[in-house]
Design goal:
Order of helices and strands: HHHH
Mean pLDDT: 88
Number of helices: 4
Distance between the termini: 85 Å
Helix content: over 70%
Radius of gyration: 24 Å
Shape: elongated
Length: 118
Protein backbone atom coordinates (compact mmCIF):
# COMPACT_ATOMS: atom_id res chain seq x y z
CA UNK A 1 0.00 0.00 0.00
CA UNK A 2 1.44 3.37 -1.04
CA UNK A 3 1.68 6.29 1.33
CA UNK A 4 -0.68 8.35 -0.87
CA UNK A 5 -3.27 5.57 -0.56
CA UNK A 6 -2.88 5.49 3.23
CA UNK A 7 -3.21 9.28 3.32
CA UNK A 8 -6.39 9.10 1.22
CA UNK A 9 -7.88 6.41 3.49
CA UNK A 10 -7.09 8.42 6.63
CA UNK A 11 -8.54 11.57 5.05
CA UNK A 12 -11.74 9.78 3.97
CA UNK A 13 -12.26 8.23 7.39
CA UNK A 14 -11.54 11.57 9.04
CA UNK A 15 -14.12 13.36 6.92
CA UNK A 16 -16.72 10.65 7.60
CA UNK A 17 -16.11 10.66 11.37
CA UNK A 18 -16.09 14.48 11.42
CA UNK A 19 -19.42 14.71 9.60
CA UNK A 20 -21.03 12.12 11.87
CA UNK A 21 -19.74 14.03 14.91
CA UNK A 22 -21.14 17.33 13.58
CA UNK A 23 -24.53 15.66 13.04
CA UNK A 24 -24.43 14.10 16.50
CA UNK A 25 -23.71 17.47 18.14
CA UNK A 26 -26.49 19.15 16.14
CA UNK A 27 -24.14 21.47 14.30
CA UNK A 28 -25.00 20.04 10.87
CA UNK A 29 -28.46 19.07 9.69
CA UNK A 30 -28.86 15.62 8.18
CA UNK A 31 -30.22 16.96 4.91
CA UNK A 32 -27.00 18.89 4.29
CA UNK A 33 -24.75 16.12 5.54
CA UNK A 34 -25.92 13.56 2.98
CA UNK A 35 -23.66 14.90 0.21
CA UNK A 36 -20.71 14.97 2.59
CA UNK A 37 -21.33 11.43 3.78
CA UNK A 38 -21.76 10.10 0.24
CA UNK A 39 -18.56 11.77 -0.90
CA UNK A 40 -16.63 10.43 2.10
CA UNK A 41 -17.89 6.88 1.47
CA UNK A 42 -17.05 7.02 -2.25
CA UNK A 43 -13.59 8.37 -1.50
CA UNK A 44 -13.08 5.66 1.10
CA UNK A 45 -14.15 2.93 -1.33
CA UNK A 46 -11.83 4.29 -4.03
CA UNK A 47 -9.00 4.63 -1.52
CA UNK A 48 -9.31 1.10 -0.18
CA UNK A 49 -10.21 -0.67 -3.42
CA UNK A 50 -7.21 0.40 -5.43
CA UNK A 51 -8.13 -1.97 -8.31
CA UNK A 52 -11.37 -0.10 -8.95
CA UNK A 53 -9.52 3.19 -8.94
CA UNK A 54 -6.97 1.78 -11.40
CA UNK A 55 -9.72 0.50 -13.73
CA UNK A 56 -11.54 3.82 -13.72
CA UNK A 57 -8.25 5.65 -14.28
CA UNK A 58 -7.46 3.41 -17.27
CA UNK A 59 -10.90 4.01 -18.78
CA UNK A 60 -10.53 7.77 -18.33
CA UNK A 61 -6.88 7.61 -19.48
CA UNK A 62 -5.54 9.11 -16.26
CA UNK A 63 -1.85 8.22 -15.88
CA UNK A 64 -1.59 8.49 -12.09
CA UNK A 65 -4.66 6.84 -10.44
CA UNK A 66 -4.36 8.64 -7.05
CA UNK A 67 -4.72 11.90 -8.97
CA UNK A 68 -8.12 10.63 -10.08
CA UNK A 69 -9.05 10.13 -6.43
CA UNK A 70 -8.34 13.77 -5.68
CA UNK A 71 -10.19 14.80 -8.85
CA UNK A 72 -13.24 12.90 -7.60
CA UNK A 73 -12.91 14.66 -4.24
CA UNK A 74 -12.64 18.02 -6.00
CA UNK A 75 -15.75 17.31 -8.10
CA UNK A 76 -17.73 16.37 -5.00
CA UNK A 77 -16.61 19.55 -3.28
CA UNK A 78 -17.76 21.55 -6.28
CA UNK A 79 -21.15 19.82 -6.14
CA UNK A 80 -21.43 20.56 -2.44
CA UNK A 81 -20.53 24.22 -2.98
CA UNK A 82 -23.10 24.45 -5.78
CA UNK A 83 -25.73 22.82 -3.54
CA UNK A 84 -25.06 25.30 -0.75
CA UNK A 85 -25.04 28.23 -3.20
CA UNK A 86 -28.54 27.27 -4.32
CA UNK A 87 -29.68 27.02 -0.70
CA UNK A 88 -28.10 30.38 0.19
CA UNK A 89 -29.73 32.03 -2.82
CA UNK A 90 -33.12 30.68 -1.81
CA UNK A 91 -32.67 31.81 1.80
CA UNK A 92 -31.52 35.25 0.61
CA UNK A 93 -34.66 35.70 -1.49
CA UNK A 94 -36.89 34.56 1.39
CA UNK A 95 -35.06 36.93 3.77
CA UNK A 96 -35.57 39.84 1.37
CA UNK A 97 -39.28 39.07 1.05
CA UNK A 98 -39.72 38.77 4.82
CA UNK A 99 -37.87 42.07 5.38
CA UNK A 100 -40.16 43.82 2.92
CA UNK A 101 -43.26 42.35 4.57
CA UNK A 102 -42.02 43.43 8.01
CA UNK A 103 -41.39 46.95 6.72
CA UNK A 104 -44.92 47.13 5.28
CA UNK A 105 -46.44 45.82 8.54
CA UNK A 106 -44.38 48.28 10.56
CA UNK A 107 -45.56 51.16 8.37
CA UNK A 108 -49.17 49.99 8.67
CA UNK A 109 -48.83 49.71 12.47
CA UNK A 110 -47.40 53.24 12.74
CA UNK A 111 -50.26 54.57 10.60
CA UNK A 112 -52.78 52.81 12.87
CA UNK A 113 -51.14 54.28 15.99
CA UNK A 114 -51.20 57.78 14.50
CA UNK A 115 -54.82 57.33 13.49
CA UNK A 116 -55.78 56.21 17.01
CA UNK A 117 -54.16 59.26 18.70
CA UNK A 118 -56.20 61.79 16.78
Amino acid sequence: MQSIQILAIIFSIGVFVGIVDLIRRGMLKEQYAILWLISAVILLVLSVWRGLLDKIARVLEVVYPPALLFLVAFVFLLLIVLHFSVIISDISEKNKKISQEIAMLKTRLEEMRKGGKR
